[in-house]
Amino acid sequence: MNKYFKSFLHRGLVFGGFGPIICGIVFLILTLIQKDFSLKGSEVFLAIISTYILAFIHAGASIFNQIEEWSAAKSLFFHLGTLYVTYISCYLLNSWIQFDYMVILIFTAIFAAVYFIVWAIVMISIKAASKKFNKSLK
């Protein structure tokens, strides 16, 4: 089995459980804030499975940035694409957003903006850490 695929599965399995925990915390907060908040068992089940899948894919997809044979652009494209397809699918399946072109367009714009802001912060942090490390080697 490909070492990258193994790493994807390992990371997903290790961190996937955090999705349902976060889902439970969100449901708890909604219960405390909204007086008439209630969900059907099927809605809770779908939300737990969806958040597990989101966390699993999100954690596993970090492997794309470590495939040495790939260019930075290819890694970025696969990481972004995998996360986007997973998130939009789960959000639509759970009816967290409506299946409406304008809503999907807004979701896409927000997703892309947040993704690239986080990506820029990570890149700046990595470059700063690399500079500091290189300085200490001299």
Question: Judging from the principal axes of the Cα atoms, what is the shape?
Answer: elongated
How do the helices and strands follow one another from N- to C-terminus? HHHHH
Oligomeric state of shown chains: single chain
Question: How many beta-strand runs?
Answer: 0
Radius of gyration, Cα only, in angstroms?
Answer: 18 Å
How is the biggest beta sheet arranged? none
Distance between the termini: 40 Å
In round numbers, the mean pLDDT is 88
Q: Considering DSSP H and I runs of 4 or more, what fraction of the residues is helical?
A: over 70%
Pick out the low-confidence regions. none
Strand fraction band? under 5%
Number of helices: 5
Structural class based on helices, strands and sheet pairing = mainly alpha
Annotate the secondary structure layout.
Layout: H1 3-15, H2 18-33, H3 41-60, H4 72-93, H5 101-137
Q: How is this structure best described in words?
A:
There is one protein chain. This protein is an all-alpha fold and 138 residues long. The chain has a domain at 1-73. The chain has helices at residues 3-15, 18-33, 41-60, 72-93, 101-137. The protein starts with a helix and ends with a helix.
